[in-house]
Specification:
The protein has 10 helices and 6 strands, in the order ββββαααβααβααααα. The protein has helices at 51-57, 61-64, 70-81, 91-104, 111-114, 120-127, 135-141, 154-168, 210-227, 232-237, and strands at 2-10, 21-30, 33-34, 39-42, 85-88, 116-119. Strand 2 (21-30) and strand 3 form a beta hairpin. It is elongated.
Length: 242
């Protein structure tokens, strides 16, 4: 499965107000492995960047003066993303801007015509309801180092999001057997799976002593008293008669 972790930086917040994309960063995953086949491009927007946006990403009009326009790179960009699943944090924002750029180029296609889209913000809200689910918050929750992120940047944020997404959806990105190593930074299994022989010795069962059983019952009684009422495990042990 081919996935593209994508992020953009823009001149402002609303394409309906004429704001444009100024940076696209993409990280490619194939079968949950980083391939290194990334896509990164700064773009000349032909308009001023809002001061508030510059404070977020640090990109200025002077820096973009000699960069290509979206119409100059649209074919390469579409070829890169076509047929993949886009993994985006707050997907409606980025997809809305890309669709706006495609429309300005006179392209009849939208992102949903070209790709599938997975929104990691929506995913995180389902997994962690009532909690902060920004990219920075997810990095803290999953212990992903983003200390090198002073300003937002499309490629940097896509790289961080790729780590977050792989951790959110299973952590280990590949099962490697027999001491293989993963050169793309995936978790490594250092030992092969070892199956036990069918004629192996029967495992010993060590039962709790009378003293341990009494201590256990006393602890359960204390928990039941603190909670009030009949605890669930007692109801299961002695189901009500009907």
């Amino acid at each position: 499965m081919r996935q593209i972790v994508l992020d953009t930086e823009t001149t402002g917040l609303e394409p309906s107000e004429g704001h444009r994309i100024i940076e696209i960063g993409c990280v490619e995953l194939v079968d949950r492995k980083l391939t290194g086949n990334n896509y990164h491009q700064y773009i000349q927007p032909d308009r001023e960047i809002d001061p508030g946006a510059v404070e977020v990403h640090g990109i200025t009009n002077e820096f973009l003066a000699d960069k290509p326009r979206f119409e100059d790179l649209v074919d390469d960009f579409i070829d890169y993303i076509r047929g993949a699943e886009l993994v985006i944090h707050n997907a409606p924002f980025d997809v809305g801007f890309i669709d706006h750029e495609l429309k300005l180029c006179g392209r009849g296609e939208t992102v949903n015509d070209l790709c599938g889209v997975l929104d990691t913000l929506a995913m995180a809200r389902k997994m962690h309801p009532g909690q902060k689910n920004s990219l920075d918050a997810l990095c803290r929750r999953y212990e992903i180092d983003n200390s090198h992120r002073d300003l937002h940047g499309a490629l940097l944020d896509a790289e961080i999001l790729a780590d977050v997404y792989l951790t959110m959806t299973g952590g280990q990105v590949a099962l490697l057997l027999g001491g293989q190593s993963d050169t793309q930074g995936a978790a490594t299994v250092t030992e092969a799976v070892r199956r036990l022989p069918p004629d192996r010795e029967t495992l010993r069962v060590i039962r709790a002593s009378d003293e341990e059983t009494a201590a256990h019952e006393a602890r359960l009684a204390a928990i039941a008293e603190a909670c009030g009422g009949t605890p669930l495990w007692k109801k299961l042990e002695t189901p009500e008669q009907t």
